[in-house]
Amino acid sequence: MSKLVVFGAGGATGHAIVGQALRAGHEVRAVVRDPATFRPADLSPGPQVVRGDVLDLGEVRAAVSGQDAVISAIGPSGSRSGGLYSAGARHFVTAMTEEGVERIVVLSSSGVRHDDPHHPLWYRAVARTLMRELYGDMRAMEDVLERSGLNWTAVRPSRIVDGPATGTYRLGDAENPAGGTAINRDDLARFVVHAAAENGWSRRRPTLAH
Hints:
By secondary structure, the protein is α/β, with parallel strands linked by helices. It has a single domain (3-209), classed as 3-Layer(aba) Sandwich (Rossmann fold), CATH 3.40.50. It has six helices and ten strands; from the N terminus they run E-H-E-E-H-E-H-E-H-H-E-E-E-E-H-E. The chain has helices at residues 12-23, 57-64, 84-99, 121-128, 132-147, 185-197; strands at 3-7, 27-32, 48-51, 69-72, 103-107, 151-157, 159-161, 170-173, 182-184, 206-209. The two termini are 28 Å apart.
């Protein structure tokens, strides 16, 4: 059992990660901007819910203190990040270094690699145009972690869809599995929790798709 802190726990994927972590027997600290609006996972005991903003270094430091691993499922409400991912990564590195926490798993996207040969041509075009700012900031987040001394993993899911865990997804190493276009949210959440609790994908970029 590990102590896992999940940032972005109020979002759909973050909430799924919290649920999967609790089912796996981990202690979970769920970090949200407004604890009053958090929907607790349907498990008992539930997570410890705390207020935190990744753009506030002091709140990040308080949230990671005493934890074994950090999971980031943060994301903007729209198609532009405004520097959220890279700024959050810099705060994670600073806070985790100060608190002696080494393991971090972040959610990125398979779209970060816009030249991936297994993406259809239309998706590569979208990644270079409409999603350029968002994916660029995710890439900057990965770069911040790569330059740090942390034990990091950047999980790059393909398009996330709702659905129960199947356990039949495929994994690529920094490239999308051939023909893969989507990944079930619960499959993604289960993989993220597993990755946070072990080191099989340390300093790598696993890319998930069915």
